[in-house]
TrEMBL record:
<feature type="binding site">
    <location>
        <position position="275"/>
    </location>
    <ligand>
        <name>substrate</name>
    </ligand>
</feature>
<dbReference type="InterPro" id="IPR029057">
    <property type="entry name" value="PRTase-like"/>
</dbReference>
<dbReference type="InterPro" id="IPR014732">
    <property type="entry name" value="OMPdecase"/>
</dbReference>
<comment type="pathway">
    <text>Pyrimidine metabolism; UMP biosynthesis via de novo pathway; UMP from orotate: step 2/2.</text>
</comment>
<protein>
    <recommendedName>
        <fullName>Uridine 5'-monophosphate synthase</fullName>
        <ecNumber>2.4.2.10</ecNumber>
        <ecNumber>4.1.1.23</ecNumber>
    </recommendedName>
</protein>
<keyword id="KW-0665">Pyrimidine biosynthesis</keyword>
<comment type="similarity">
    <text>In the C-terminal section; belongs to the OMP decarboxylase family.</text>
</comment>
<comment type="similarity">
    <text>In the N-terminal section; belongs to the purine/pyrimidine phosphoribosyltransferase family.</text>
</comment>
<keyword id="KW-0511">Multifunctional enzyme</keyword>
<dbReference type="InterPro" id="IPR000836">
    <property type="entry name" value="PRTase_dom"/>
</dbReference>
<dbReference type="InterPro" id="IPR004467">
    <property type="entry name" value="Or_phspho_trans_dom"/>
</dbReference>
<dbReference type="GO" id="GO:0006207">
    <property type="term" value="P:'de novo' pyrimidine nucleobase biosynthetic process"/>
</dbReference>
<dbReference type="InterPro" id="IPR018089">
    <property type="entry name" value="OMPdecase_AS"/>
</dbReference>
<dbReference type="InterPro" id="IPR023031">
    <property type="entry name" value="OPRT"/>
</dbReference>
<dbReference type="GO" id="GO:0004590">
    <property type="term" value="F:orotidine-5'-phosphate decarboxylase activity"/>
</dbReference>
<feature type="active site" description="For OMPdecase activity">
    <location>
        <position position="308"/>
    </location>
</feature>
<dbReference type="GO" id="GO:0044205">
    <property type="term" value="P:'de novo' UMP biosynthetic process"/>
</dbReference>
Length: 469
């Protein structure tokens, strides 16, 4: 069909599944009843061209002198290119991070400082954080930001936030108009419509351009990050990962000791970490850790006892060093909730640091109804930075340590799966990134070693892509 009006565009976006309804986790961690995915636009040239046309019209540019176009990376780049070709205007490319090779430029394109003007283009705005970050980057390079145009405004405070920062944001369409069109055309039920309207009535906090990731962090190799680590164990892990070419951790949550040892023997060559739960072993004996330690040393992987400490300092200290399992004696890594505060981290450090051990803090979990929050993340970061000689990273769903000095922290991403998006236990799987943790896909396979190799290669490829682009 011909795509001419805004209503046509909305209906076509819905048809190609670029406007979705359900339960979606946003970058902020908030669960949204709808999701707008305009990354599909380049696959539909006519639709892309129409969206670009509407955005250019909304810009209302009278003076084209020294004007350029900048698409917020990366979804808006094709939109900027489409307008640039149609209007014969140059396009600038802003990088998300500074590369350690080539020119090292954050902005690519022909510019004259203090003279070049640019129109920022964005696909969707929620809080306005991405537009703000891009604007600040451009201004640091001496480029004059004229204004910004977004195709779809989620109407959750983005325009207002950017206005406070001195930027003029114009939108082609708001989410309420999108919802009204789909509801009127029978594409959206009354219940879905109400859920979406209720959701957008809550504003998103004002963004802070200073909290964006350190530009150079993503391009550092594991070995380069190891050199910056204050944790002996953290540096050891990062070097091991580069030497062995693996960022795969296996969660071997089985109930029998011999089964766990068999798994360790079979997949040991493919992994950097074996995660255990010795407290669920039905036949645990005091000699078991020594047998596991021998396999780990022979195959060069670290042992991570997933203890999840969550008590006061004196108690966790004894749980770590003593008891039946004597975890600190044989496990390279353990983890802790931050619920008891940084004092419990200090108590664990008293035991583990002299032994060359390391601690992961649980900042986020993969279960859909996890009670971790933004405050949990903030408290974890604070404790980790305070005890960086012992805390070497986090259990999380996304990168949370984003300051320049955080580059050595490891992010362990649980629930990674290469084929499906969720299971019937409320767990959501992520794409390979950071240190990836897998369980069922390997332990329940008839070819554990082969499956582990497949995950290792996928995870390593994802890591390599951060260095080569």
């Amino acid at each position: 069909m011909a795509i001419e009006t805004l209503e046509d565009v909305v209906l076509e976006l819905h048809r190609i599944n670029a406007v979705k309804f359900g339960q979606f986790k946003l970058k902020s961690g908030v669960i949204s009843p709808f999701y707008i995915d305009l990354r599909l636009l380049p696959s539909y040239p006519q639709l892309l061209k129409t969206v670009a046309k509407f955005m250019w019209q909304k810009a209302e540019i009278a003076n084209r002198d020294q004007l350029t176009l900048t698409g917020v990376p990366y979804t808006a780049l094709p939109i900027a290119t489409a307008i640039g070709i149609d209007e014969n205007l140059p396009v600038l490319i802003v990088r998300k991070e500074r590369k350690a090779y080539g020119t090292g430029n954050m902005v690519e394109g022909e510019i004259t400082k203090g003279v070049t003007r640019t129109l920022i283009l964005e696909d969707v705005v929620t809080s306005g954080g991405s537009v703000l970050t891009t604007a600040k980057q451009l201004e640091e390079e001496g480029i004059i930001v004229d204004r910004a145009v977004v195709f779809l405004n989620r109407e959750q405070g983005g325009k207002e936030n950017l206005t406070k920062e001195g930027y003029d944001l114009r939108s082609v369409i708001g989410i309420r108009q999108v919802l009204d069109i789909l509801h009127t055309k029978g594409k959206l039920s009354d219940e879905q419509y109400k859920q979406a309207i209720d959701f957008i009535s809550v504003p998103v906090p004002q963004p802070n351009a200073e909290s964006t990731p350190a530009p150079a962090a993503a391009s550092l190799s594991y070995t380069e990050r190891a050199a910056k680590s204050k944790s002996e164990l953290g540096a050891k892990l990062l070097r091991l990962m580069d030497e062995k070419k693996t960022n795969l951790a296996l969660a071997a949550d089985v109930l029998r000791s011999e089964e766990l040892l068999r798994i360790a023997e079979e997949v040991g060559p493919e992994i950097c970490i074996l995660k255990t739960h010795v407290d669920i072993l039905e036949d645990y004996e005091p000699g078991f850790p020594d047998r596991l330690r021998e396999i780990a040393d022979r195959h060069n992987f670290l042992i991570f006892e997933d203890r999840k400490f969550a008590d006061i300092g004196n108690t966790v200290k004894h749980q770590y060093s003593g008891g039946v399992h004597r975890i600190a004696k044989w496990s390279d890594i353990t983890n802790s909730h931050i619920v008891s505060g940084a004092s419990s981290v200090a108590s664990l450090k008293e035991v583990g640091k002299p032994l060359g051990r390391g601690l992961l803090l649980i900042a986020q979990m993969s279960t859909a109804d996890a009670n971790t929050s933004a405050q949990t993340v903030e408290n974890s970061l604070k404790a980790a930075r305070e005890h960086a000689d012992f805390v070497f990273g986090f259990i999380c769903q996304e990168k949370i340590a984003k300051e320049a000095d955080d580059v050595a922290f490891v992010h362990m991403t649980p629930g990674v799966h290469l084929q499906r998006e969720g299971d019937n236990q409320g767990q959501h799987y992520n794409t390979p990134q950071h240190v990836i943790t897998q369980k069922k896909g390997i332990t329940e396979s008839n070819d554990r070693r082969g499956e582990a190799k497949r995950y290792r290669e996928a995870g390593w490829s994802a890591y390599q892509s951060t260095l080569n682009h």
